[in-house]
Amino acid sequence: MLEAARKLHAAAQKAAVHESTRVTRDDSPLLDTKSTEGKNTADASAGGEKPEEAGQEEKPGEAGEAGGKEASAEVQDEVTQGEQLCANGGAYIGGFKGGKRHGIGICRQVNDYSYEGEWANDQICGQGRETYPNGDSYEGGFLSGMRHGFGCYRTEKDVVYTGQWKQNMKEGLGEMNYSGGGFYWGNFASDKPNGRGSYRYGDGSAATGTFRNGLLHGAGSVDFPDGSAYTGSIIPGVGDFHDLGALRYTNWATYIGKFEKGLRHGRGIMTTAKGTVYNGEWRRGELNRNSCTTVVSKKGPATGSIAMTAAA
Hints:
Oligomer: single chain
Number of helices: 4
Protein name: Histone H3 K4-specific methyltransferase SET7/9 N-terminal domain-containing protein
Largest sheet: 20 strands, antiparallel
GO molecular function: methyltransferase activity
InterPro entries: MORN (IPR003409)
Pfam families: MORN
Keywords: Methyltransferase, Repeat, Transferase
């Protein structure tokens, strides 16, 4: 039994030197049972006890079994290098521990899927890079085989998300860059923009506010490419101004009041670029002059139409 343990330990030492990627371990030689037995006897005699009475004597067979177990445990804890063929025709090359994929490894499948990075207990776990059959790729953190933590996902069409992940979904702060030049920065939840954030579109317009399931929801602000801007309530999924809001036009005329489906509708105050103020009821974008309570001209009477619309 002792001889077998020594051979097993010697083989483990040789393998540890040969494999540079293995985990560092204690390579001290097995305990010499003869010297141990002599030491135990001397210690017992000094104490006035016989080895049998002291209960410290070890039989060679028992020491060999203990050493064999220690050597076996060390071998189990080592990370070895190897290759494993998959049932679908793919292959894994990299580290193994206890017969499971562990450490750094590469997995490639016949459907053009590949992963290169860290493994733990036969699962993708840690930092790595995945390439998918559709051409998309992800590089970042993984946990239990899923995208988790901080990472960057790039689609084949160059849509790029960089930010936090949780169980394969965008979760937390992140930035989404679109191929058309637009981007979103803010909070994500359940794989979509949720919470406070800002959208900048390819045409130069921008929206800031609270998002729900990817859509601007409730109060927000929108800046248009022509210089006009709106602050107030917005219809989710449609983008129309609705209820109370303030609109500044390109020529710096302003309207503060009620909106309906993107048009001035209800009570509101319109101030033209020349300083004329209209305070009254509006219907589908037009002022009902019969309901106008005040018309104040600071720079002379207004001329022409006051029907102005913001850039969509």
